[in-house]
Design a protein that fits this description.
Elements lengths: L22 H12 L3 E2 H4 L5 H6 L2 E6 L3 E2 L9 E2 L9 H11 L4 E6 L10 H14 L4 E5 L7 H9 L4 E3 L9 H4 L5 H14 L5 E7 L5 H13 L4 E6 L16 H14 L3 E4 L9 H10 L1
Parallel strand pairs: 2-5, 3-4, 5-6, 6-7, 7-8, 8-9, 9-10
Antiparallel strand pairs: 1-2
Helix pairs in contact: 4-5, 5-6, 6-8
The structure holds iron/sulfur cluster.
Length: 293
């Protein structure tokens, strides 16, 4: 697994995939727009959209489309946003019911401008989904709530099926990749999940290809495992626009396979590792294989 630091721009063949289109996709897209909803799927132009939609999974982005932070890998617009809409939880539940979703991932921009960071709205969205769609599975991909333990308690009290919080990259790259985040703070959040409710599995994920070394990835996987996290995603970082961080290296599929085996060797029980893997890619399978359902 050699490391090169020259900038890589042209996508290798294993990363070329057409974005979804066609009537079925357009139907879902217009539904989401009509519902005045945002999905990470669309905001991040995720190449897996159609695959996920056809597997009855989607990822909703709550609390607006602008973030109070400005991570250098993220395509979400930075800047102040309007106060969250108290009706959004119900609108998410209605759209999810209309799409006949069985597994719903709820994530958000980071709203450091809101007292509880939006923890209450996460809890209301989980409750609205579970009331509207009996048997639905809900994963929440949460921000770090600036390390406030009560905010995490509020979310977990609503009993999501999976608590996901991405570590995103290795500690050395935090100042460049996610300057407003804190590596230890994110580990503490994941460690607290089992302390607060050990019936809810913790999940996390990394992007590869930002300049990390193998040893640094290995150490971060070990740190994550030590928090009690057992579900993991590893995917390729892709540069959203030229204004974002460049790709340091395109990781070949066979190296993702090696990391898959290594992560299982470290003790993770559910691992999705591949060039197209994203936080909620095959989320339902990962959860169901976790034997939690
Ligand atoms: S905190 Fe999340 S939504 Fe905000 S810029 Fe960073 S990755 Fe994007």
């Amino acid at each position: 697994m050699s490391q090169t630091n020259k900038i890589q721009t042209r996508k290798p063949k294993w990363l070329r995939r057409r974005l979804p289109s066609g009537p079925a996709y357009e139907k879902i897209r217009s539904l989401i727009n009509k519902g005045r909803l945002h999905t990470v799927c669309q905001e991040a132009q995720c190449p897996n959209q159609f695959e996920c939609f056809s597997q009855k999974t989607a990822t909703f982005l709550i609390m607006g489309s602008r973030c109070t932070r400005n991570c250098r890998f993220c395509n979400i617009e930075a800047g102040p946003d309007s106060p969250p809409d108290p009706d959004e939880p119900l609108r998410v539940a209605e759209a999810a019911a209309f799409m006949a979703l069985q597994y719903v991932v709820v994530t958000s921009v980071t709203r450091d401008d809101i007292p509880d960071g939006g923890a209450g709205l996460f809890a209301e969205t989980i409750t609205a989904l579970k009331e509207k769609i009996p048997g639905v599975m809900v994963e929440v991909l949460i921000p770090d709530f600036q390390g406030v333990k009560q905010a995490l308690k509020t979310v977990l009290a609503a009993k999501p099926d999976v608590l996901n919080h991405n570590i995103e990259t290795i500690p050395r790259l935090y100042p460049v990749v996610r300057p407003q985040a804190d590596y230890e703070r994110s580990l503490t959040l994941l460690r607290r999940v089992a302390d607060i409710d050990d019936t809810i599995p913790a999940k996390s994920g990394l992007m590869l290809g930002l300049g990390e070394t193998d040893q640094e990835v290995e150490e971060t996987l070990t740190d994550l495992h030590d928090t009690g996290c057992r579900m993991l995603t590893l995917g390729q970082y892709l540069q959203p626009t030229p204004a974002h961080l460049p790709v340091s290296r395109f990781i070949p599929p066979e190296e993702f396979d090696k990391w898959h085996e290594r992560a299982l060797g470290i003790g993770f029980t559910e691992v999705a590792s591949g060039p197209f893997v994203r936080s909620s890619y095959h989320a339902k399978e990962l959860f169901c294989d976790n034997g939690s359902r």
